[in-house]
């Protein structure tokens, strides 16, 4: 039987000694993170969530001592501290993944303490930037040399979805037609592509992106051959500096639409520009209105 080469133990395998996995932090470092690094592109997001929200509370605890009640109390404390339910649920999902893997290793004989913990009900909320807020945000982004800042500027100037910008390739940019051809990443996307119209300002941002010769991506990630996966850390720091703590990345898309409507553009045209609803697939001849967000700012 051929020998299996792996540095990551599989469920059912024994550790060399009980001291190998003394607490949750040890399990995360020795098992969970090595495992997801090769399976999950967004593993840096999991790692940030663990370091920021899980380790300070549960990191030095033996996994078998964790109880459902304290997990529920911790989750509700996060919400009471101001985190949005969607953010709390994402943190809980990472915790559940860790515990599920630990069950497979026999480290939680009583089952996962997270298994029956219910996700928080999401609040339906609308948040759009005011013109003053948008100007302050754009000015701060223009001062930053970070590639995350360039990506956020494009999000605000195009109304595109985050993944549509982060996964864009240079070959998808048509400077002559002022279009960015992207795969539809909306909830009802069917695999087809749509054209995102580019204003003069958006074209200028793309031209300002440093181009790496061996990468097809507008925004290359740290891992070779991969696009930039996580801009949340940069965004979270920036929004707190600007006093925009309640503004999410997806609110930039909503703000783009709101500015166009306030400038007198028809809802149907705005819908096509956003690639949403029945008019999801924007015709290539559609142009960003001259009186839209860039001019208003």
What does this structure look like?
This protein is mainly alpha-helical and 297 residues long. The chain folds into two domains: 18-104; 131-296, hpI Integrase, Chain A, CATH 1.10.443. Helix content is 46%, strand content 4%. The chain is built from twelve helices and three strands, in the order αααααααβββααααα. It has a three-stranded antiparallel β-sheet with strand order 1-2-3, with no helix packed on it. Helix 6 (147-158) packs parallel to helix 10 (250-262). The longest helix has 20 residues, at 85-104.
Portion of residues in beta strands equals under 5%
The share of residues in helices is: 40-55%
For the record, the count of structural domains works out to 2
> CATH class of the largest domain, anyone?
Mainly Alpha
So how many helices? 12
Radius of gyration, in angstroms, nearest whole number:
22 Å
Question: How many strands?
Answer: 3
Characterize the overall form.
globular
CATH topology of the largest domain: hpI Integrase, Chain A
User: What is the annotated CATH architecture of the largest domain?
Assistant: Orthogonal Bundle
Low-confidence stretches: 1-8, 10-14, 277-297
Largest sheet: 3 strands, antiparallel
Q: CATH homologous superfamily of the largest domain?
A: Intergrase catalytic core
Distance between the termini: 67 Å
What strand line-up does the widest sheet have?
A: 1-2-3
Structure class = mainly alpha
Query: What is the chain-wise order of helices and strands?
Result: HHHHHHHEEEHHHHH
What is the averaged pLDDT score? Answer: 82
Pfam families: Phage_integrase (PF00589)
InterPro entries: DNA_brk_join_enz, Integrase-like_cat_sf, Integrase_catalytic, Integrase_recombinase_N, Phage_Integrase
Protein name: Site-specific integrase
Keywords: DNA integration, DNA recombination, DNA-binding
């Amino acid at each position: 039987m051929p020998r299996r080469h792996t540095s990551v133990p599989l469920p059912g395998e024994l550790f060399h000694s009980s001291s190998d996995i003394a607490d949750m932090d040890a399990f995360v470092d020795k098992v969970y993170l090595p495992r997801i690094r090769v399976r999950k592109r967004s593993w840096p997001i999991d790692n940030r969530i663990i370091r920021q929200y899980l380790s300070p509370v549960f990191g030095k605890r033996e996994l078998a001592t964790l109880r459902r009640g304290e997990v529920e109390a911790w989750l509700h404390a996060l919400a009471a501290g101001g985190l949005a339910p969607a953010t709390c649920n994402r943190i809980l999902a990472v915790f559940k993944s860790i515990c599920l893997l630990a069950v497979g290793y026999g480290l939680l004989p009583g089952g996962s303490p997270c298994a029956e913990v219910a996700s928080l009900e999401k609040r339906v909320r609308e948040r759009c930037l005011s013109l003053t807020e948008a100007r302050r945000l754009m000015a701060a982004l223009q001062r930053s040399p970070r590639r995350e800042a360039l990506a956020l500027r494009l999000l605000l100037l195009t109304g595109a979805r985050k993944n549509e910008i982060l996964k864009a390739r240079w070959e998808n940019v048509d400077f002559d037609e002022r279009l960015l051809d992207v795969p539809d990443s909306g909830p009802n996307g069917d695999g087809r592509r749509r054209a995102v119209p580019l204003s003069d300002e958006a074209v200028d941002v793309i031209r300002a992106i440093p181009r790496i010769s061996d990468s097809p991506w507008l925004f290359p990630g740290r891992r070779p051959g991969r696009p930039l996966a996580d801009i949340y850390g940069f965004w979270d720091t920036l929004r707190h500096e600007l006093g925009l703590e309640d503004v999410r990345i997806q609110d930039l898309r909503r703000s783009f639409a709101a500015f166009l409507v306030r400038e007198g553009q028809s809802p149907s045209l705005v819908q096509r520009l956003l690639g949403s609803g029945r008019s999801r697939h924007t015709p290539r001849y559609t142009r960003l209105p001259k009186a839209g967000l860039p001019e208003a700012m």
